[in-house]
């Protein structure tokens, strides 16, 4: 009782005296709101699919690089390992990171972070569509996951997921109400810029798709049936031509459809499978509308590298894609330029293990597309600007072929024929060398100044 009276008598004057003293103050708590929903409400499923929407309700900007979101779950066993992926994000998957942290053998959390960006007062991230799965692709049990909400089919405030700013919790309650202090497993620093090893360049100075130089230079014009595209569609050799544009020969890929499989023909030209790390580049002309017939088809115009899929979820599969969808597709409105890096997939029933970044704007016209594959990181550039950066398990493990194709996602309106074209001016690859977009342009200009239409010093497999 005496102690309480002393506090009452002296605390207020003491605080008043200290009020005039300048001291370092703690960073004020940022007002945020975290909304959650899931697209995988099953208790047992091949992957968890938490979706977040973070809202800045404070009066000052919120740097996303200072923010971490933690989703808590129970591991299926002490030995279970997990893989993270960002399926889609309005702010761009290239700025979203994910890592798994052990609290105990079974108690884990997915910590989502950001490499860049800021939320103004009242702004939100909008959709962060995330997913994670067991590394062995066995079904995981979500029923006992503390952050899991099977009934959350639409966004709602969710305090079972926590948000931290610079290590201080600003939203939600962790399991047990206590913040853990785990020690994450360090990530090894990859080796960059491996030794050089040859170059490949072609400016497509061919007469037609039957030019014998195409085969002698290890290109193939596809004629075999199968995906991707509309079931029953053909891949026509005649759809690959080599017109002169602006004084240079270009490769032209034509795609034609009347909305039916039988009335659809697509096109593809691919090189042999011998390319791996280094720099890939091509100058590509995308188009937003058909050269004849009504517009509106979900058509895909591409530049990509790929390793064949030998079996469902083949761990040696790899694919690096530029895909332009002028009219959208895959349930998204166009125009869209996708940059996707693949770990693997299963065709039936469909299951993709990939990560994508996209630009939701028209890219009609000529563009220089560059991909750098080195040191565990895949970097995509469009016209000299970095557009996406992927890594981790999505980094390719095996040699790939270089491909260009032009195809339809699905049949559209029937009764009229539509013809779309995509053009490619040149393609370039530097083995085991990181080449900047500006350097690529300089090297291609050098080849043309020397009237070099083709060179390949990369060893055959």
Compact summary:
With about 450 residues, the chain is mostly beta strands.
CATH C-level class of the largest domain: Mainly Beta
Silhouette: elongated
**Uncertain runs with pLDDT below 50, 5 residues or more?**
1-28, 182-195
Biggest pleated sheet = 9 strands, antiparallel
The level of helicity is under 10%
Task: State the secondary-structure class.
Answer: mainly beta
What report would you give on this structure?
With 461 residues, this protein is mainly beta. It has two domains: 32-177, Sandwich (Immunoglobulin-like); 199-456, Jelly Rolls (Sandwich). It is 8% helix and 42% strand. The chain is built from three helices and 33 strands. The protein has helices at residues 2-18, 212-216, 437-449, and strands at residues 32-38, 44-45, 50-56, 62-63, 67-74, 82-89, 96-102, 107-114, 118-119, 128-134, 140-141, 156-157, 161-165, 168-171, 199-202, 219-221, 234-235, 240-241, 244-245, 248-249, 251-257, 265-271, 278-286, 299-306, 319-325, 336-347, 350-359, 365-374, 377-382, 385-391, 401-408, 418-431, 454-456. Strands 15, 18, 21, 23, 28, 29, 30, 32 and 33 form a nine-stranded antiparallel β-sheet that branches. Strands 16, 17, 22, 24, 25, 26, 27 and 31 form an eight-stranded mixed β-sheet that branches. Mean pLDDT is 88; it is low at 1-28 and 182-195.
């Amino acid at each position: 009782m005496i102690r309480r009276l002393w506090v009452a008598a002296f605390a207020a004057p003491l605080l008043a005296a200290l009020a005039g003293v300048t001291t370092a103050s703690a960073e004020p708590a940022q007002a945020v709101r975290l909304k959650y929903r899931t697209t995988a409400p099953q208790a047992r499923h091949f992957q968890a699919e938490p979706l977040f929407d973070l809202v800045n309700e404070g009066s000052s900007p919120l740097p996303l690089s200072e923010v971490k979101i933690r989703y808590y779950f129970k591991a299926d066993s002490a030995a279970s390992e997990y893989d993270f992926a960002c399926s889609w994000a309005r702010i761009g998957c290239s700025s979203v990171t994910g890592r798994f942290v052990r609290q105990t053998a079974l108690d884990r959390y997915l910590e989502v972070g950001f490499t860049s960006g800021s939320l103004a007062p009242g702004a939100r991230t909008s959709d962060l569509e995330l997913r994670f799965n067991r590394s062995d692709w066995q079904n995981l049990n979500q029923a006992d996951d503390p952050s899991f909400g099977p009934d959350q089919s639409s966004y709602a405030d969710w305090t079972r997921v926590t948000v931290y700013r610079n290590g201080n919790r600003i939203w939600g309650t962790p399991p047990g109400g206590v913040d853990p202090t785990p020690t994450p497993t360090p990530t090894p620093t990859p080796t960059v810029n491996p030794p050089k090893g040859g170059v490949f360049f072609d400016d497509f100075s061919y007469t037609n798709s039957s030019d014998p130089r195409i085969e002698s230079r290890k290109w193939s014009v596809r004629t075999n049936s199968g995906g991707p595209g509309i079931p029953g569609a053909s891949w026509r050799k005649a759809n690959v031509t080599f017109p002169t544009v602006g004084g240079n020969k270009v490769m032209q890929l034509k795609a034609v459809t009347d909305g039916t499989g039988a009335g659809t023909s697509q096109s593809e030209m691919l090189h042999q499978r011998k390319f791996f790390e280094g720099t890939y580049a091509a100058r590509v002309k995308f188009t937003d509308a058909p050269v004849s017939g009504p517009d509106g088809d979900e058509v895909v115009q591409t530049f990509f590298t790929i390793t064949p899929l030998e079996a469902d979820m083949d761990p040696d599969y790899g694919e690096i894609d530029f895909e332009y969808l002028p009219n959208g597709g895959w349930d998204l409105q166009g125009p869209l330029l996708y940059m996707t890096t693949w770990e693997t997939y299963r065709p039936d029933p469909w299951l993709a293990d990939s990560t994508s970044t996209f630009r939701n704007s028209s890219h009609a016209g000529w563009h220089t597309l560059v991909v750098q594959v080195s040191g565990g990181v895949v970097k995509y550039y469009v016209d000299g600007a970095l557009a996406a950066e992927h890594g981790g398990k999505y980094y390719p493990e095996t040699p790939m072929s270089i491909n260009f194709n032009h195809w339809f996602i699905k049949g559209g309106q029937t009764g009229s024929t539509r013809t779309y074209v995509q053009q490619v001016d040149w393609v370039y690859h530097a083995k085991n060398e990181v080449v900047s977009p500006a350097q690529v342009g300089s090297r291609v200009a050098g080849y043309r100044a020397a009237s070099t239409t083709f060179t390949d010093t990369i060893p055959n497999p």
